[in-house]
Design goal:
By secondary structure, the chain is mainly alpha-helical. It is 63% helix and 0% strand. It contains eight helices and no strands. Residues 1-26 have low confidence and may be disordered.
Amino acid sequence: MKTSASLLAGLALAACASTPVEEPARQTDNVLAICQKMTADDVGLTERLARGGADLDDFCACFVTLEAGLDGETRLHTIALMTKIIEMRDGTDLTTEDVAELIEDDRDGSLYGFPEEFLKQGAQPLEDSLTKARRNPESCRAS
C-alpha cells in the first residue's frame, strides 16, 4: 500500500532540499493557520473525517496538540511539508491526496524537495493527527 494511501488518508505532502528551511515560529495561532490553509476546501479529507464524526477543525486541533510535542527536526520537516502542500494546491484543482502522491513518487526529492526519509518524518505527525481526529474527535476539540 502506498504511503499516500495512509498519508493522512491522502493528506501529505518547502522548499528544495538544498535550500535551508527556517524553523517556523511555534506559536499555536501560526500552526493552526498553516493547518487550516493546508486543508481548506479539501472535500476528500472532509469526507474521510466525517466518517468518524470529525471535521477539518478537529484535525487541525489534533495537529496543533501533536505539533507542540515534536522534536525540532520533525517539526521542521512537517511544517515544510505542509507549506509545500499549500504551494502545490494553490490555484490548481489538486487535492492533498494528489499532492501526496506526486511528492511520494519523487523518491529522491529532486522535483519537490522531499526525499523519502524527510517525507516519512514530516508526514507522520499529520497521519497521527488524522487518526486521532477520526477515532476520537472529542479529544481534539478538548485540546
